[in-house]
Amino acid sequence: MNDQQTRTTSPSRPARDVRDLADDHVRRLAELDPVLAGDLGWTERQDELPDLSPDGTAALVAACRETLERLDTTTGARQPADPDERRCARLLRERLGAQLDHLTSGEPLRAVQELFGPLATLRTAFTLMPVDGDEDWATVAARMARVPEALAGYRASLAEGRRRGLFAAPRQVVRVTGQIDAWNGDAGGRGWFAGFAADASVGDAVRADLDRGAREATAALGELRDWLAAEYLPAAEGTPDGVGPDRYRIANRFWNGADIDTVEVYEWGWSEFRRIREEMAVEAARIVPGGSVREAMELLETDGGSTGVVVGGEAARAHLQKIMDDTIAELDGVHFDLSGRLREVESRLAPAGSAAAPYYTPPALDFSRPGRTWLPASEDDRYPLWDLISTWYHEGVPGHHLQLASWAVRSRELSTFQTSLVGAVSADVEGWALYAERLMDELGHHSDPGSRLGYLNAQMLRAVRVVIDLGMHLSLPVPDDSPVGAGRRWTPELGREFFGRHVGGGDAMADSELLRYLGGPAQAIGYKLGERAWLTGRERARAAHAARGEEFDLAAWHAAALAQGTLGLDDLVPELAALPARA
């Protein structure tokens, strides 16, 4: 293992027994999952893929249980005095408990999902691999050759789920078979793997291995697709889209690191929807006097208004890179410290068959791979900027990139578990990114009405997520004042109609979002819940400073908050409220 994975404790340093245990757990996970090791920037076994069979899941369960037992031995009944140790112990206990509930409830046996399932993870692993010469490409070829084995393990898990009566909902299966069709139809019908390796400048032997690996991986994907369509899908008929309260409770803890009052969150989601709807109407009137929000968004989609439209994927990628570069230059030294490696972030075009929404991949812990934002292709190769500006504050700077790269900088002081996606709580990560969008609005970066409508549209998207994610999975009643489905119970059809009426982005975006919520219950509510936690923590910290007669320095508070590593929502607010932030 490289030195990022090895730490020692000297007599002059505080005890770090819990953080060392957390790092041991990450090392064990990396042994079970070479893709995770690659995500962290570790180079060992990058020609391999994880075991996606029931045996692989059993090994993960054993690793989690053993680490929890060791944690009990390490800490006993005491809370560590060191704050980093204390936070790590709470995170480790909460995250491993949530993962055990997820694994042992049978979720990996029905993991057919466009965005969160094993297939998307496998393909993303290739896009993050180094490809700088024959040696790197030989590793890629060797990993491609293992794709059929990995897919066989995945199929074995789904077959075991079928035997137990645990199925994904049919619409998820249909979506994933379509996703595979898109991948295998890429590169002129040769498949995504062939297209990925097509431009590699390598010797004849590596080229032969790449071509053979790509053919075998593509064929294995096709076989999985045919099995899903011919055997799995008919058996899954009748499986409901909504997961119900028991599965939702487990999923919520897994994604958000908290137990929630679903009634309170549902009602709060509606209140946010109503508030944002009113703000959008005001902003739309600045764009189309007397017009509706829909008319304003249609105008912005057509001609871009004052925010403009970029034509061509490469031109859009370059423009989004400039947004991040300019934001770094403006915020550095004023609201954040954006020096050194934190400035390294790349805008990329997403591969074919990706979900419709942009996304971010974090840097390796040693920054050998930079953080990257990814822009999916549009159907017409036009990219209106009105709703991309705030999105890039979310995905790039000061959103995901600033938080996750800041964690990477601190990974040696804390633990890899606290500072990477291994232990990251989705609601903390997405909540910070949504907080970052709001912060940029607070700082006056949406003076243009089109840009601000785009920001509000992003806020509306996350409020709608709360309402329809909870509503569809728990079959909740639609309020009487709802513009869609008043007095009825939520269904996917009502959710799709509601989303399409209130969120801009087009049909492809709406369809993809609906499948996302149904395939990853409770993940989507974490954006607004996480933002609420960050805002509450900030205001409580501000109030505490005022009560002590101290000045509240927002930049100092941001620095302290980003230095903590990840936290679940149960712990995030009290930790944020207690942070020092003095000028």
Q: Brief description of this entry?
A:
Helices cover 61% and strands 3% of the residues. With 583 residues, the protein is mainly α. Helix 15 crosses helix 17 (426-442).
Describe this structure in words.
By secondary structure, the protein is mainly α. It folds into two domains: 3-251, no CATH class; 252-526, no CATH class. 61% of the residues lie in helices and 3% in strands. The chain contains 23 helices and five strands. It has helices at residues 17-32, 34-39, 54-75, 83-104, 118-127, 134-145, 147-164, 170-184, 192-197, 204-236, 244-256, 262-287, 293-303, 313-331, 389-395, 400-410, 426-442, 449-474, 492-502, 507-519, 526-547, 554-562, 569-577, and strands spanning 309-311, 345-349, 359-361, 371-375, 382-384. The strands form two sheets. Strands 2-4-3 form a three-stranded mixed beta sheet. Strands 1-5 form a two-stranded antiparallel sheet. The longest helix has 33 residues, at 204-236. It is globular and about 65 Å long. The model is unreliable at 1-12 (pLDDT under 50).
